[in-house]
Amino acid sequence: MEKPDMELIKDGKRLDGRRPDELREIKIEVGVLKRATGSAYVEWGKNKVLAAVYGPRELHPKFLRNPTKAVLRCIYNLAPFSVEDRKRPGPDRRSVEISKVSAEALSSVVMLERYPNAGIDVYIEILQADAGTRCVGLTAASVALADAGIPMKDIVAACAAGKISGEIVLDLMKEEDNYGESDLPIAVMSRKKDVVLLQMDGKLTREEFKKAYELAVNGATQVYEIQKAALLKSVNDVKIEG
Ligand code: UDP
């Protein structure tokens, strides 16, 4: 389908007033759910996302068990009321894909070999969506895993960059995602900068890809600082209470 021509950036400013290399505002709250082993709530621009972790616990059905390591499962769910045109409830192609790539990204940092035969379930609930939800979901899930006290080699931080009206920009919002030329969501291990997720919508030249990739890694580094601050705050709050 042809996209309508829309000027998404003018005099170096985007529709929401951001500079090309600017993130939307991000707020992270840790430990928001009493009955989950770990949880996090993230507001990222107009996105609102809840992540809950259960486990490590006995894995069912039994045939899924792995005697050498835990199995991390992920369910990404876009709530029917989270988007402009009501989404039909339940899984679809898109949510199955995002669940799969998210589970793979998180499995590369979680020390699964510590929990043979066990299961770790990660739920990502998108309550309000405004583009970039897979990045928000992964960022929230990673904090929820840390809140659950599950040992990890590193924390996963995610961010997208893309191309709008011919320019490479960081962290696309809905209008930019809809009418822009390309979107490149990535997730990295925060300290090592190893890439654990990389997807791309649309087209970029080699040069543009390089620029967008570097911008997205830089964005993920900023996201990591916010994750770290939220986790430190939650640990300090517990100390004060207790
Ligand atoms: N979206 C929607 N209905 C859907 C799926 C997506 O309105 O059934 C919107 C939603 O705001 C989402 C955006 O389209 O954030 C971009 O979706 P995409 O598949 O690119 O994934 P995301 O950028 O959220 O990771």
Tell me what you see in this structure.
It contains four helices and twelve strands, in the order ββββββαβαββαβββα. With 242 residues, the chain is an alpha+beta fold. It has a single domain, classed as Ribosomal Protein S5, domain 2. Helix 1 packs across helix 2 and helix 2 packs parallel to helix 4. The radius of gyration is 18 Å and the shape is globular. It binds uridine-5'-diphosphate (UDP). The site of uridine-5'-diphosphate has 14 residues, from helix 2 and helix 3. Uridine-5'-diphosphate binds next to helix 2 and helix 3.
What is the secondary structure topology, with strand pairs?
Blueprint: E1 9-10, E2 13-14, E3 26-30, E4 38-44, E5 47-58, E6 71-78, H1 93-107, E7 118-128, H2 133-147, E8 156-164, E9 167-170, H3 174-179, E10 182-189, E11 195-198, E12 201-202, H4 206-241
Parallel strand pairs: 6-7
Antiparallel strand pairs: 1-2, 3-4, 4-5, 5-7, 8-9, 8-10, 10-11, 10-12
The structure holds uridine-5'-diphosphate.
Residues 78, 83-84, 87, 94, 129-134, 174, 177, 185 line the site of uridine-5'-diphosphate.
Question: How do you describe this structure in short?
Answer:
With 242 residues, the protein is an alpha+beta fold. 30% of the residues lie in helices and 31% in strands. It has a single domain (18-241), classed as GHMP Kinase, N-terminal domain (Ribosomal Protein S5, domain 2, 2-Layer Sandwich), CATH 3.30.230.70.
